[in-house]
Amino acid sequence: MKLWLDTANIDEIREINAWGVLAGVTTNPTLAGKEGVPFEQRLKEIAAEVDGPVCGEVISTERDGMIAEGLKLAEIAPNIVVKAPVTSEGYAAVTELAKRGIKTNMTLCFSPAQAILAAEAGATYISPFLGRVDDIGNDGIDLLNEIVEIYRVQGYTTYVLAASLRSPQHVVDSAKAGADVATLPHSVFKALVKHPLTDIGLKRFLDDWEAYQRALA
């Protein structure tokens, strides 16, 4: 499972990218707005920083508008992936963009039926939102399991991108379910590193080393 960062903050991207584990980025105009920069400018910066896919979302809700925006976004860099919602207009736009060889990510997926339509439309990625499913009292991991199983049975080539992940356990469960990609906010990415026993073990090791050096002296 590939790990992507969900952000428009270039410093966060550079920090995680330096670890050597970052495979891509998802972002949108809302996130760019929080950074106070034009969306297309930030997409260009991210695409230059990250070797892997960079997903940028369209604003239009109509087929033709989505296609026009998607074509414009795809010109920014070769690794741009156009993100569109799982609506009837979105499926129509993604079908056309796919015919033109543009990679796409269908977002805001909350049901297996929507995921089936995305695969049939030729989407490169489908993004079920696990955390938001949990928020309404359902189980986001169950949704992910269903989509992964359907894609396996049907032989769909669309990648399953687990989104709206709220914790390290979400990431682990997504990997166990067979997600191809997990996109996570900076806070969750940082939390993957943490474990109290690691901190305790490292402190003991360093204390032992200092004691050893004192003994030698």
What's the arrangement of secondary structure elements?
Blueprint: E1 2-6, H1 10-17, E2 22-27, H2 29-35, H3 39-49, E3 54-57, H4 63-74, E4 80-85, H5 88-99, E5 104-109, H6 112-121, E6 125-128, H7 130-135, H8 140-154, E7 159-162, H9 168-177, E8 181-184, H10 186-191, H11 196-216
Parallel strand pairs: 1-2, 1-8, 2-3, 3-4, 4-5, 5-6, 6-7, 7-8
Helix pairs in contact: 1-3, 4-5, 6-8, 8-9
How would you describe this structure to a colleague?
- By secondary structure, the protein is of the alpha/beta class.
- The chain has one domain (2-192): TIM Barrel (Alpha-Beta Barrel), CATH 3.20.20.70.
- Helix content is 54%, strand content 18%.
- The chain has helices at residues 10-17, 29-35, 39-49, 63-74, 88-99, 112-121, 130-135, 140-154, 168-177, 186-191, 196-216, and strands at 2-6, 22-27, 54-57, 80-85, 104-109, 125-128, 159-162, 181-184.
- An eight-stranded parallel β-barrel has the order 1-2-3-4-5-6-7-8, surrounded by eight helices.
- The longest helix is centred in the last third of the chain and has 21 residues, at 196-216.
- The protein is globular, with a radius of gyration of 20 Å.
- The mean pLDDT is 96.
Q: Level of helix content? A: 40-55%
Shape: globular
Under CATH, the topology can be stated as TIM Barrel
Count of helix runs: 11
Give me the secondary-structure category: alpha/beta
Order of helices and strands: EHEHHEHEHEHEHHEHEHH
CATH architecture: Alpha-Beta Barrel
- Domain module count: 1
Estimate what percentage of residues fall within beta strands: 15-25%
Task: State the separation between the terminal residues, measured CA to CA.
Answer: 49 Å
